[in-house]
Amino acid sequence: MLTDPPYNLSSNFEADFPSRSSISHDFGEWDDNQITPNDWVPEIARILNDNGTLITFYNNRRTHELLAALTQAGLEFRQKAYWHKTNPVPQLYGVKWQEAVEEIIIATVNEGKGHGFQDQRGQHHNVIHSSIQNRGPNTDHPTQKPEEVISTLIKWWTKPEDLVVDPFAGSGTVCVVAQQLGRQYLGIEQKHEYVETARTRLNQRSLQQDW
Q1: Domain named DNA methylase N-4/N-6: which ranges (predicted)?
Q2: Is the separation of the CB atoms in 141 and 194 below 8 Å?
């Protein structure tokens, strides 16, 4: 299970600049406190198999809510990883540090063997470096994650032919990357426009799959 749920960060804040892209914190109504970890984590725990793994992005300031929901659902918190954004959003006044890191939470159904990560031996940093997906009128989704980040996670935690499920599929990036890497995939998305975008992206890879 690899997903990027709503962070509940949306606000009415906007700022325009003459020499760079404008900044907006309005990601859409789907990110306006309509769903919390307690709404979706128990359902994921219910359907994961005995060796199932949950990998999820989440808001750094509200990670405690996610961790509490994981514990309550009986999932085993394993580790945090970090996406280092090499082109983070500029600070408005240039006073505070830029928010250049996003947390990735990894949890499993059990504490034992059988998880894909155990095939990767050696010493590896828990940081993935990648730029933010460009945002603008031609962007498929306002919080779309880079394929490079998703690819690293899928390669590390799964094997070819494994099933990768994204219950907050958005524009289908997880499914697109899973397709590229020879994994089975299932995407769930309630907004019709994003479903159509995901179908288009998948069809462009010259593989027909049911969605």
Answers
A1: 2-198
A2: yes
